[in-house]
C-alpha cells in the first residue's frame, strides 16, 4: 500500500509539473527560424502520411501558401499567435478533418473543480451566425431577459464581426462546400474567443434587438446546491441514458426514436452523433418496434451530426436495404507502415500505459498485417468495405433523410450512399461533408517540434461505394428546403414539415 501511495503522489506531482510546463511554454515566444522549421515539419508529415493531400488544392498552390506563410514569420510569436497564422493555411487544403489543435491553457484539478461549481459565461445561450453577424436564439435561464433574435454587436468593445472574420478563416469543410462553416463556427466561436482572451468571470456585450441597442454585463454565477445536485444526477448512467447515448454536457441524447402520428405509420429517428456506444442495441430495439407497428415511412434526421463511427453507419444501413451492400470502397493509405503511426499510448494514465505495454505486441502484429497492396496502391483492411447482409428487421418502406450543413463526415458517407442507391429522398440543404468521401478513419497525432502545437493527420481515404460526382462539394439534397433563424426561434421545422406534407399527399393519392 505504501508503494501504491508513493506512485499516486509521484503521478500527481508529475501531472502538476506537466500542466505548469505546458502553460509556461504556451506563454513563451518562439524565434522565427524555429517557427519556419515547424511549418516545414508539418508539410513534410502531410506529404508523408496524408493519402489525398492535393484533392482540392494543386501542389504548386499549396507550396506557395506554405512559402508565403514563412515569409511573414519575421518576429517571435507565442504558440497561440502562431496558430492563428498557420491554421488558415491548413484550412486552405480544404480537408474538413485536417486541423491544427489550438494551444489552450491547461487547468489543475483544483481549478477544474472550482469551475464546475460555476455556471458558464457564454455557454448558457445558443447562437446563430449569418455572414458576419451573431445572434442569440435561445436564453434558457432568461439571463438579463435577453430575447431570442438579439444580435450581439460587440464583446468588451470589440466588434463581433471582427472575430467572425478572423475565426472563419480557421474552418474548412471538405472541398468547396459553403454550408458547413456557419454551423461549426457557432459551436467553436467561444472556444477561439476564450483561447485568445482567457477564461473571465465577466463580459460586457452590446446588443441590438428590434432597432434598440442595449449594453449588458454578463457574470459567471456560482451554482446553487440544487444546480450541483442536478449536475450529479445528470451524470448518472441509467439504462435509458446508455441506450440513447445521453450527453450530460448538453443535457440531450445522441439518439432518439418516436412515431410522428397516432397510427404509428411514420417513424422518426434522430441521430446527433454516430458515437457507436450502445448503437447496436438501439437500432435492434428501434427497428423491431418499427416492424411491429408496420410503419410505412421512416424519417432519419442527421442534421447537425458531425459524424463518427463507420461501424454504426454500416449497421444502420443494414436496416435500410433488402439486399447485400458494400458501404465504402477500399481505404487507401500512403504506405504499409502508416497504421503503426497512430500513437498507441496517447492519453494513457500510468495504469493504462502498463496494460497497453503488455498488449502492445498483439497490437503491433495486428497493425503490421492490416494492409495489402493492389495495383501499386496500399489499402487498409476494413470491415465496412466488405459486403454486408441486410438485417432481418430491415425496413422496406419509404425513407426520407433530413440533412443540412452540419451533416459532416460519417453523416455524408451514409447519405451519399443512400442517394446513390436511390434508397432515400434527401431533404434540406447540402451537407458539410463531401459527397465523394473524406480523409479521416484514424490519425497520427503529430506535434510540431518547437511550438509544440498538436497536429493530427488523418491516414485513411474513406469513400462511399458510389458513382462519384466529382463535384468537390457536399451531398446535394433531392429537395432543397432552407431553415431560417426565425424558424428556429419559433420552433418551426420547414424541412420536416415538407416531408410530413409529402407523406400526407401520398396517403391521399
Automatic annotation (TrEMBL):
Spell out the GO cellular component terms annotated for this protein, sorted alphabetically and separated by semicolons.
Answer: outer membrane-bounded periplasmic space
- Gene Ontology annotations of biological process type: proteolysis; signal transduction
So which domain of life are we looking at?
Answer: Bacteria
A Pfam family assignment? Peptidase_S41
The GO terms describing molecular function are: endopeptidase activity; serine-type peptidase activity
- Domain (Tail specific protease): residue spans on this chain: 236-482
InterPro entries (UniProt xref): ClpP/crotonase-like_dom_sf, Tail-specific_protease
Question: Which Gene3D superfamilies does the entry link to?
Answer: 2-enoyl-CoA Hydratase, Chain A, domain 1
SMART domains the UniProt entry points to: TSPc
Q: Which PANTHER family match?
A: CARBOXY-TERMINAL PROCESSING PROTEASE CTPA, TAIL-SPECIFIC PROTEASE
Q: What is this protein called?
A: Peptidase S41
- Tell me which species this is from: Chryseobacterium joostei
Amino acid at each position: 500500500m505504501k508503494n501504491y501511495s508513493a506512485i499516486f503522489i509521484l503521478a500527481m506531482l508529475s501531472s502538476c509539473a506537466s500542466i505548469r510546463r505546458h502553460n509556461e511554454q504556451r506563454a513563451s515566444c518562439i524565434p522565427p527560424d524555429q517557427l519556419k522549421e515547424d511549418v516545414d515539419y508539418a508539410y513534410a508529415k502531410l506529404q508523408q502520411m496524408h493519402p489525398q493531400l492535393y484533392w482540392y488544392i494543386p501542389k504548386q498552390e499549396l507550396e506557395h501558401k506554405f512559402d508565403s506563410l514563412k515569409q511573414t514569420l519575421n518576429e517571435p510569436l507565442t504558440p497561440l499567435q502562431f496558430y492563428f497564422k498557420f491554421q488558415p493555411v491548413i484550412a486552405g487544403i480544404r480537408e474538413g478533418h485536417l486541423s491544427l489543435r489550438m494551444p489552450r491553457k491547461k487547468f489543475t484539478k483544483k481549478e477544474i473543480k472550482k469551475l464546475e461549481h460555476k455556471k458558464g459565461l457564454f455557454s448558457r445561450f445558443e447562437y446563430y451566425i449569418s455572414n458576419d453577424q451573431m445572434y442569440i436564439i435561445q436564453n434558457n435561464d432568461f439571463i438579463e431577459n435577453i430575447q431570442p433574435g438579439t444580435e450581439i454587436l460587440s464583446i468588451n468593445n470589440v466588434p463581433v464581426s471582427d472575430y467572425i472574420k478572423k475565426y472563419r478563416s480557421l474552418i474548412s469543410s471538405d472541398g468547396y462546400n459553403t454550408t458547413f462553416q456557419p454551423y461549426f463556427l457557432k459551436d467553436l466561436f467561444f472556444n477561439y474567443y476564450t483561447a485568445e482572451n482567457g477564461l473571465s468571470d465577466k463580459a460586457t456585450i452590446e446588443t441590438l434587438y428590434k432597432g434598440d441597442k442595449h449594453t449588458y454585463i454578463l457574470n459567471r454565477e456560482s451554482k446553487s446546491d440544487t444546480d450541483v445536485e442536478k449536475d450529479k444526477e445528470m451524470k448518472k448512467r441509467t439504462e435509458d441514458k446508455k441506450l440513447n447515448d445521453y450527453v450530460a454536457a448538453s443535457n440531450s441524447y445522441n439518439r432518439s426514436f418516436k412515431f410522428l402520428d397516432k397510427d404509428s405509420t411514420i417513424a422518426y429517428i434522430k441521430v446527433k452523433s454516430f458515437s457507436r456506444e450502445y448503437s447496436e442495441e438501439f437500432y435492434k430495439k428501434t427497428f423491431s418496434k418499427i416492424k411491429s407497428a408496420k410503419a410505412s415511412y421512416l424519417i432519419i434526421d442527421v442534421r447537425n451530426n458531425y459524424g463518427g463511427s463507420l461501424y454504426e453507419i454500416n449497421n444502420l444501413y443494414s436496416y435500410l436495404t433488402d439486399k447485400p451492400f458494400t458501404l465504402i470502397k477500399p481505404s487507401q493509405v500512403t504506405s504499409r507502415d502508416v497504421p503503426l503511426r497512430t500513437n498507441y499510448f496517447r492519453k494513457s494514465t500510468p495504469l493504462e500505459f502498463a496494460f497497453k505495454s503488455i498488449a502492445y505486441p498483439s497490437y503491433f502484429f495486428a497493425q503490421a498485417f492490416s494492409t495489402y497492396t493492389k495495383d501499386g496502391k496500399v489499402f487498409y483492411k476494413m470491415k465496412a468495405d466488405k459486403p454486408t447482409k441486410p438485417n432481418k428487421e430491415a425496413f422496406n418502406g419509404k425513407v426520407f433523410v433530413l440533412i443540412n450543413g452540419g451533416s459532416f463526415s460519417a453523416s455524408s458517407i451514409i447519405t451519399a450512399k443512400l442517394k446513390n442507391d436511390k434508397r432515400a429522398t434527401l431533404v434540406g440543404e447540402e451537407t458539410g461533408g463531401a459527397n465523394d468521401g473524406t480523409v479521416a478513419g484514424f490519425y497520427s497525432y503529430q506535434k510540431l517540434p518547437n511550438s509544440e502545437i498538436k497536429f493530427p493527420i488523418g491516414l485513411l481515404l474513406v469513400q462511399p461505394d458510389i458513382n462519384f460526382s466529382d463535384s468537390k462539394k457536399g451531398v446535394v439534397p433531392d429537395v432543397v428546403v432552407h431553415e431560417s433563424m426565425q424558424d428556429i426561434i419559433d420552433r418551426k421545422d420547414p424541412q420536416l414539415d415538407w416531408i410530413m406534407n409529402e407523406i400526407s399527399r401520398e396517403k391521399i393519392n
